Amino acid sequence: MSQKITSLYKLVTIPFMYELIQRTLGQKKTRHYLCNGPLKTNTGDRVLDVGCGPATLRPFLGDICYKGMDLNPSHIEHATKDFGHLGTFICSNAVTDTVNAPGPYDLIYCIGLLHHLDDDEARTLINSLSARLADGGRLVTYDPVYVEKQNFIAKWLNDLDSGQNIRTAQGYANLFDDVELPLDTHVLSGMLNVPYNHCCNIVSQPK
Ligand SMILES: C[S@@+](CC[C@H](N)C(=O)[O-])C[C@H]1O[C@@H](n2cnc3c(N)ncnc32)[C@H](O)[C@@H]1O
């Protein structure tokens, strides 16, 4: 896994610091977009949150059958304390320990995960998660992205990111080459309080 692990970057592995940074950058628009769009659920949906971190979106996803997975034990401990009544949490490497959450799922999402994985890891993960979609299910990924003529603040924040694999939208789309399901890739601006761009990928399993 490609991550900068200097003392500065270690801060984001501490749940309190991670949430503070998220709050400062602004989460409301992102949350509104995701929870009312790509992550919109129906009651009883089976949902897998991969690289869940402290699972801050969980309370906004309604009455679902939720499972969160992350390889950082501190995040899993924190998420279990806050949201253990809303689902189950597994401390696991989603790329290598796939047996822990076999599925099928109506929704699988990876928010801010792909840019922490190199191409081989990301492709392995995407192929394995796509195979766990129920009929009518979808896989959603959401990550920072490099775009042409990008605002210098957005580019600077990307350059500073602890994830070493921020890609262009085409770079993210290429990771789905082996998945024989419809893919929608789009770039978003203005989801944070600072100039920033995100890339959202949605794979849909037909009903
Ligand atoms: C940028 S954070 C995003 C957290 C959360 N999804 C959110 O939106 O707040 C990326 C998360 O992915 C986790 N992660 C990175 N590689 C992973 C892997 N191979 N398996 C499971 N989790 C992973 C990290 O521990 C971290 O919590």
Question: Can you put this structure into words, describing what you see?
Answer:
The structure is a single chain. The chain is of the alpha/beta class and 207 residues long. It has a single domain, classed as Vaccinia Virus protein VP39 (Rossmann fold, 3-Layer(aba) Sandwich), CATH 3.40.50. Strands 1, 2, 3, 4, 5, 6, 7 and 8 form an eight-stranded mixed sheet that branches. The longest helix is centred in the middle third of the chain and has 12 residues. The protein is globular, with a radius of gyration of 16 Å. It starts with 6 loop residues before the first helix and ends with a strand. The mean pLDDT is 92. The site of S-adenosylmethionine has 17 residues, from strand 2.
Describe the secondary structure blueprint for this structure.
Blueprint: H1 7-10, H2 15-25, H3 28-36, E1 46-50, E2 65-70, H4 73-83, E3 88-91, E4 105-111, H5 119-130, E5 133-146, H6 152-160, E6 167-168, H7 169-174, E7 183-189, E8 197-204
Parallel strand pairs: 1-2, 1-4, 2-3, 4-5, 5-6
Antiparallel strand pairs: 5-8, 7-8
Bound molecules: S-adenosylmethionine.
Sum up the structure in keywords.
207 residues, alpha/beta, Rossmann fold, 8-stranded mixed β-sheet, binds S-adenosylmethionine
**Sheet/helix structural class:** alpha/beta
DSSP helix fraction: 25-40%
Q: Catalogue the unreliable spans.
A: none
The largest pleated sheet is described as: 8 strands, mixed
Q: Secondary-structure element order, as H and E?
A: HHHEEHEEHEHEHEE
CATH class: Alpha Beta
Radius of gyration: 16 Å
